[in-house]
Amino acid sequence: MRHFLSNKVEVLRGIGEVADAESKNLSLERAGIVESVLGMKWLPGDDVFTYSFVMRDDLKRILEEDHVPTKPEVVKVVMTLFDPLGLIAFFLVHGKILIQDIWARGIGWDDAIPNDLYERWRTWTNLFPELDLLRIPRCYFRSALPENVNNLQIHIFCDASEVAFSCAANFRVKLDGEIQVAFIGSKTKVAPLKTISIPRLELNAAVLGTRFLETLQSYHSLPVSRRFLWSDSSTVLSWICSEHRRYNKFIAVRVGEILSSTNQIEWRWIPTKLNIADQATKWNSGPRLSTENPWFRGPNFLYEEEGSWPIQRLVAPTTEELRSDAIILCHHTPRLDIPIDVSRFNSWTRIQRTVAFVLRYVDNCRRRKRHESLQLGVLTQDELKRAEELLWKVAQKEVFAEELSILAKSQGPPEKRHCTVSRSSSIYKTWPFMDDRGILRMRGRIGMAPYIPKEAKFPAILPRNHPITFLIIDWYHRRFNHANRETVVNEIRQRFEIPKLR
Which structural domain range is residue 184 located in? Predict the structure, then answer.
């Protein structure tokens, strides 16, 4: 094996290599000793990585200012630079976004890209000269890392937007009283063409960060003491910190994968302005290709003590992501003015008179308070009518509570209000309305007849399988001396509408 490269001349001399700089020149049109490593350039003398766009003549022609590229030419230039460590992924991802937009427009293979896309293309390619000046140190830290270091931390930053999602990683260590932060690498992905909500894209970014964390730990032998994963999405953090099985499959599967490799306490909230991964998901004023960029040197708060770091802030997760079988159902129980145990009665007359006496007793208590004369003696027709209507409303409230709640909010005269109950309601076809006494009634064409009693025009709706309905039907059956079925049905329909009465 020959032709070794090293950033130390002593090493080359020790293994018998020629230290002549000219022997390692790859005939690139750049000054200096340069070696290519998977598309990146390594300057052994300075021990830094750099990138170069000194390329073939056909690629130079594509980058000329007066040339409007076609779809394959854009792809050729974007894919020319291979960035395996993701050191400049925050810059390259915007070229990939441009490729996706070109394909989404349906532009022909040999057609020039439209003007708006060409302007974005020129804005992106004009940054190539700045990329040539970028120098990224190959070593993580300025001094050798002690073997017994016990405070090495790894920080993963996650972010997403409508066009892309990304994650970036940093090492943080305190050596000799000085805090050092090193950029490790990043991962980026273009968002799918199918529209996905921002919280879901943020969750995909969190999954990408979790996978990147596993990869970094498997490839490094450095003893990581603490791990931190940062996201500016409070919704995603709430999903991670809650019972993820309650959510639909999309959320539950991804949160489950995150929790299989990380712990809830390792996830923290960070403001968007401090999230370095935000540079890969939004163009803003354009990528800043400088080593002073927080993308390379890490956010400023990492150089401070942990007490000065952003404080975690959580909000309740969005309820639309809950599984249909995990939604908490609220059971609506209508409040009755007088609780009635219908099961204690087997006669309509008896329950009607009992309720009438109870109502009289309540009224007399109020009269005594106002020093008015009490009502005594035989029950009047009005008292029996009042008790009867109360029993109707008891049956209706127990079965048609939702319909009554909707109709109570309707406006206009009761018999002219439009039917607003749900189509799934069992009484939807009866065109129901609520009269001025709070009783649910049915409308029909007979309502226009002038000489028919109001109860026949608008019969009260009673639930089919309710004990009060059974008592009313039994009373009619006995009143007409056990007559045939049609006689009882005809008499009941003069006042009531009961589904499937026969």
Answer: 139-325
